[in-house]
Structure prediction request, 608 residues.
Amino acid sequence: MSFSVTILGSSSALPTSKRNLTAHLVNHDERFFLTDCGEGTQMQLRRFKQKIGRINHIFISHLHGDHVFGLFGLLSTFSMMGRKSELHIYANPQIKEILDSHFIYFQDNLNYQINYHFFGAKKPQLIYEDSKFEVSTIPLKHRIPCVGFLFKEKPKQRNIRKECVELYKPGIKDIINIKNGADFITEDGKIIPNDKLTLAPPSSKSYAYCTDTQYTESIVPLIKDADLLFHEATFLKEDSKLAKTTYHSTTIQAAKIAQLANVKKLIIGHFSSRYKNDEQFLKETSSIFQNTVMAEDGLEITIN
Amino acid sequence: MSFSVTILGSSSALPTSKRNLTAHLVNHDERFFLTDCGEGTQMQLRRFKQKIGRINHIFISHLHGDHVFGLFGLLSTFSMMGRKSELHIYANPQIKEILDSHFIYFQDNLNYQINYHFFGAKKPQLIYEDSKFEVSTIPLKHRIPCVGFLFKEKPKQRNIRKECVELYKPGIKDIINIKNGADFITEDGKIIPNDKLTLAPPSSKSYAYCTDTQYTESIVPLIKDADLLFHEATFLKEDSKLAKTTYHSTTIQAAKIAQLANVKKLIIGHFSSRYKNDEQFLKETSSIFQNTVMAEDGLEITIN
Prediction:
């Protein structure tokens, strides 16, 4: 089952010639979830050969322009491409006002429906769920209401031992039950306990997306043991005061959160364009949390 | 005196991995005029190393998203860059409503002033003028009110012959008058006619920008003898019916306008993404108007 994230933009509010504005594309089992949609996201999707028409879910962390302004063009492009399937947008309730007042002037005839799913930013909330996957919010600490998102696989089915299938010849219904943890009763009434029939399921993977935020340990229990954490590192450590006043984080702070949450891997991004040398971001972060990578536009990271 | 245009985006409404949405940057004597502002324009300005902070005038041809959606991010970026100088926006009056309703949600604290200059789309209108340069509208034929823009140098001063300066030793005021066409009166009252004192001035150059539009010969007198014409060629000639119903032009139609208007050079652009082979655009257009070039993102054309 595929599970990956592609970085579409890695700059903070001012894009550079190398880094576009924020957007990530999460692919779980060929379902595509767009996370934030800065200006130029539709061009980045094309540039990195992603399947624009297959995005059915868009999550918006907060309503600052550098996370939203690509939505206008993308919604319009969907329409021009002949989209018919419903689009789900998960965001602060104000997103509907913004889009409704936009539609007064532009693209008032979308040929598909938008379903809005609103959330607050104070408590974690399950906002998406299918048979294999779920998405919850992670309240963050920013100038305006802002959340991160935890993308998480549901517990997977146990694997039946091949030799048990040959020995007991369970029917299809039995196999489903066994995979879900049930014992098996043979024709002569003997109970075979599940742990003799099965092996442990593959582990369920998770990806936590946390931007924009000040350093806040309140997120640690929510992202505990995540396989991959994206945490913003807008500033280098020398600018920790600036990070605090602008409600952003430094390299060191991103690393500390990764460490406290015991995540397996950290990606840092949302880099301020004020620094000439990007390498310092990685150097500072990995001095505290070694398994760190820097976000680059087009980078794809596989989670399973 | 420099006069050039840089193509920032050459696609029609759907961008491709090679062609961004519409925007041109006109540079006259180091004054910068942005013409249309499709999504991603601020990134293209950076990519092609243009001076974002020196753009003081933005002209919007019409209020379709592919010509406007880059404005939201650009206005916000100006603010983040600490802009203080006034910005002039020339557009249909509705632009103010659009931006005002946008500012309710985003960037309500721009640290510079926007001066709006409105125009209709029925009659040609002079909308900008400085001592050396002027910009007028060119009414086009599109689904909604739409204009092109004629960027034109004002008549230049005549050149004084060097030998006349040595012979008659005119003062600074006299020189200014002579350059503007006046005769010179010597100390002993002799009148020296201007055509003996001066050479003809360098010719005044012009650039006509015409997109989006159906084929319309009504623009021919307005763009007559232009040094450079940008005319949209959204479709190949085989799709002339589609061009008509969508209020766009074909290659052949762009070439015919260039021919009728006797322009010196034609750039075609605003290409539909439906065609696999771009070369056909140039082939068809130059079969009728030979001095044609294709717009490419980043292409700079010098006009003088």
